C-alpha cells in the first residue's frame, strides 16, 4: 500500500520504507524550510542525518530530520510557521562580528546561490 | 539497574558489525548501538528490510559479506550475546573511576514508533525522556524495529567495560558558490536516496569532487534512469594504478576500477579529469553548473563550460566521525587525505585505556579494511580479557590491514583536495551552511579581528556553531584558516572543529535527566 501524507495541505505519497525526505523529493519538493538570516530555501543535503539542513515539522513536532524519519500514513509535514523561519537551537545575540550591515550583505549574496557574475 | 556489558560497539556498519559478531563469538557480552534502523552503515545502506525487493542489492559490493555478518548478528542476538540497539545515537560518553564507560543515547528518529508515541503525548517533543515517556518508548521499541531491537534502559543508557568505536564517516565537502541551493546534495546523500529509499534525486545530474566514490554514485544514478551530464574529477585519474605500492597491495581494486570504467562507458557518462565545478547556478534551485579545467593545484586553467542540471552531487572524500573518541580524550592525527583521524596501534587500541577504534575513524580506507579492523579490535579485546585466540588469525588480519592501509594511502595521494581550492570561493560564498557564515565573514574576522586560528575564527565568526556543529564546514573552515595564514592545515587546526560537547542535539529534558553522579568530572560543556 502507498502511504498518503500531506505537505502544507498538498498530498504527498510515500512507499512504506521511505523516509519523509525521500518521499518529498520523489514528489518533486526539494525544499521545505527557510534559513534564519537570509530566508533561503533548504531541503536534503547530506541525506544521512549529519547536516540538519532538512529539518521539518512533522505532525506538529518541529525540528525533525526529514532524511531519517520514516514516512507514515497520514503524516502532516511542514505545516508550521516555524518551517518558514527555522533557526539554530538557541538564538544568540552574538552575531557576526561585522555588525548587521555586513552580515545582511553576506546573506543577500548567499541568497543568489550563483547565477550572477558580479564577482567573477 | 543496567547490566554492564563486556564491550559496547558503536556503529553497525562494516567495522561495527564485524567487531560485534567477532566479540560475541569470542564469548563476550556485547551491546551494539547504531543510529540507523537496520544494520549496514552507509556502505551497505539498503531499503527497509520489511519491504525488501530483490533488486535492492543492485550496485552493492560485498553484499554476501554483509548478509553473512547480519546472519551472525541474528544468531548472537538469539543466544543473548549481543544486545542490539538500533535507531539510537550516542550523544555523550563518559568513564568513571573504575573504568566503566557510560553511553547516553537519544533516538535518532530513524525508528519511527518510539518518537511518535512520545510526540503524541502532552510533552510535544520527540525526544522527551521524562521517565514515563522513555519507558513507554522502550517498551514499544522491540516490536517496532524492523530488526526487532532490544530496548535500552529507561534513560537510554548503556554501560560497558570497553568500547569499540566504529563511527564511520560522511562526505567531506568544500564550499563553492551556489552549493546551498536545493538540488545540491552530497554524493553520499544521493547514493543514500537511491539505495535506502529508491528515490532518484534528479533527472540531469553532475557528479563532482574527487575520488573513486564519484563513480558508483554516477553509475548508480544512470542505472536508475538519470542522465549524468558529467563526472567532474578534480584530479588526474588512475594514478594509483601506477603506484607500485598501491596497486600491488590490493589487486582486487584494479578489477573494481575496470568494472566502473565499463559501466561509465556503457552509460556514456563523460568523465572529465582535472575539472571542477566552480559555480552552481540557479535562483531557488539548481539550474546549471559551471565547470572549469584546473591545474594540478586546482587553479582554474582552461575554458569554462556551462552544463544544465537539476542535481549536483558533491564529494571530496570523507570526514571521519570522531566526536566520541575526542570526548574521551583519544589522541588524533592528520591522515594522508588531510582528515583528522584517531591514532591507533597495531591492535586498534586508541590512547585511552579500553577504547578501541576501527574503520573510517582511524583513517578513511573503505569497507573491506573497516571489516578487518573491526574483527581485529574484537579479537584483541577478547585476548586481553583472557579469551583463547585462534592461532595466527590476528597476525593474518594485521598483515591484511597493513596492505589495506597502504592502498588507502596511495588512493589518498592520487585524489587529494586541491591545495588552491579556496580560490574558487567568492566573498559571498557560504562556508557554514547552518549559521550562514560567508567566506568574506571569515576573511574579515581574520584581518579585522585577528582571528588567526580556527578556534578563534569559530568563536568570532561562528562557523561550525549551528545545528551540525561543524560537521559539514569544519574541514573547510580549518583549511581557510590555514590558507589565510599561508600555511598548510594541521591537526591542531582540525581538532577544535571536530570536538563537540554533545555528539547529537538532545532536549533540555534529556540533559536534565542525566544522573550527575555517573557523569565524569570532565565538564562536557568545555568547548562552548
Automatic annotation (TrEMBL), chain B:
<dbReference type="Pfam" id="PF07992">
    <property type="entry name" value="Pyr_redox_2"/>
</dbReference>
<dbReference type="InterPro" id="IPR036188">
    <property type="entry name" value="FAD/NAD-bd_sf"/>
</dbReference>
<protein>
    <submittedName>
        <fullName>FAD-dependent oxidoreductase</fullName>
    </submittedName>
</protein>
<dbReference type="InterPro" id="IPR023753">
    <property type="entry name" value="FAD/NAD-binding_dom"/>
</dbReference>
<dbReference type="GO" id="GO:0016491">
    <property type="term" value="F:oxidoreductase activity"/>
</dbReference>
<dbReference type="InterPro" id="IPR041854">
    <property type="entry name" value="BFD-like_2Fe2S-bd_dom_sf"/>
</dbReference>
<keyword id="KW-0560">Oxidoreductase</keyword>
<feature type="region of interest" description="Disordered">
    <location>
        <begin position="104"/>
        <end position="137"/>
    </location>
</feature>
<dbReference type="InterPro" id="IPR017224">
    <property type="entry name" value="Opine_Oxase_asu/HCN_bsu"/>
</dbReference>
<feature type="domain" description="FAD/NAD(P)-binding">
    <location>
        <begin position="5"/>
        <end position="374"/>
    </location>
</feature>
<dbReference type="InterPro" id="IPR051691">
    <property type="entry name" value="Metab_Enz_Cyan_OpOx_G3PDH"/>
</dbReference>
<feature type="compositionally biased region" description="Low complexity">
    <location>
        <begin position="127"/>
        <end position="137"/>
    </location>
</feature>
